[in-house]
Model the fold of this input.
Amino acid sequence: MSNHLFDAIRHAARPDALFIETTGGRTWTYGDMLEQSGRLAGALDRLGLRPGDRVAVQVDKSPEALMLYLACVRAGAVYLPLNIAYTLAELDYFIGDSEPFLVVCTPKMRDGLQPIAQKYGALVETLDADGGGSLLDLAQDEDPDFLDASCGPDSLAAILYTSGTTGRSKGAMLTHDNLLSNASTLRDVWQFTADDRLIHALPIFHTHGLFVASNVVLLSGASMYFLPKFDPDEALQLMQTSTVMMGVPTFYVRLAQHDGLTRQAAAKMRLFVSGSAPLLAETHRAFAEKSGHAILERYGMTETNMNTSNPYDGDRIAGTVGFPLPGVSLRVTDPETGKPLADGETGMIEVSGPNVFKGYWRMPEKTQAEFRADGFFITGDLGKIDERGYVHIVGRGKDLVISGGYNIYPKEVETEIDQIPGVVESAVIGVPHPDFGEGLTAVVVSKPGASLDENIVLNGLKDRLARFKQPKRVIFIDELPRNTMGKVQKNILRDTYAGLYRKER
Ligand code: MCA
Ligand code: AMP
Done:
């Protein structure tokens, strides 16, 4: 039977070649990958999973967690990764909305998640950071030669939740071919081969660490150092025996500030890729001066995988995201009318191609609203194309803050803050932050006489929102600035507090 994505992965896999090495010295060959993902797929099958069922996964980063993703692909399941930082309140929504067959969590979360899973009819199994847990126990006795489920190019491989500007998060449905076509393209344009060794320090519950990094390595038959989280000392040390690193801009800000970053330290590396948030031109320059490497910046989205990339050979221009990838069509349009604009003019970025997702899970109206009649997806990013064809992202048409590569939708945080007793209303904004790019900041109006302070607001959010969504600072003012239509003028707030984090770190 043919399995569109896994057949390609299997094709690139040389059983004796190294696939993963952890900092603890544990190693997996491609043969181990085939066996362990086969056993896990067998365990899913034995539990009663049917092709098309969702498997929601909130676990620490580990090679076994990656094997579980591959097992889902092989079993025809829809992999649904969830940020390890999500609270039970957040998880309740994702599980209720996606109705998974199975929830895989850390042993620590099991008791909290069990009643939620039960409410929505899902089973619960565990997977811990060291490769133990009930799911691994089940897999141990399974046959490593799993017969992969038949999946065509349009079969669903994953759902990744991404928050909308209004309402709750939406599940972006990604097909086997969305993932395979994009990773194959990236492998080719970034010239990956089996000789490459990637420093993998990103989380694996988002597109960047899961699909861009891991799938490109898998489709090249290359290998990777798999780190639980980013640590600049460790990254510098691993550069001696690696060839590529992929990261969010915060990785490069931290490395550029590190005394250990020199031309010699980076001499064995051939490529540094940045994405998920804008890389400041000053970071690009500082990194190049110290390391001799021009970071390659690319641009993507959960819904579209990667859209553009600076060239591997050719000028990598700071402040641009390069050219549309082969097979991807990109245009800039008037945000109101949707009419294409001339090069050099700023407007809405729209894309189409095999990389673009199938739609939002069980939200046909929202899906329709984000596509043009001719099939182009409206990204919500504002940009322009310059005379050389490089794409520039100049802003966002969506109210979104990106902090250290994580997206935060102000509306979600404002809704939580507004429920805290004593709060009249709030506006959540992102302002320049030297480490995270944007620092999430809450501007709050309190009721007369209410004794609110920053700590009370932060305490009110603690069990409701993941840590990265909690404001770095809470500021109290008498009233929010509004325009004549009554809309809060966040641009005024952003200007007023632009220097808030200037002195930190
Ligand atoms: C951690 N904290 C954060 C963040 N990360 N706060 C805001 N924004 C963040 N990104 C919290 C911690 O819980 C901690 O709180 C405090 O901030 C400082 O933590 P620190 O030790 O400095 O952070 P860290 O653990 O070193 O993490 C920073 C990080 C990490 C390495 C930048 O956030 C990260 O790996 N980000 C990558 C995100 C990513 O993969 N994005 C790709 C999305 P406390 O001290 O109170 O506990 S995919 C995507 O966007 C598209 C498709 C694309 O184009 O790729
Ligand atoms: P996500 O919802 O996590 O998929 O985030 C996608 C968003 O991240 C895009 O719509 C952009 O706003 C932003 N993004 C990703 N890569 C870049 C980049 N290189 N430069 C600027 N913004 C980026």
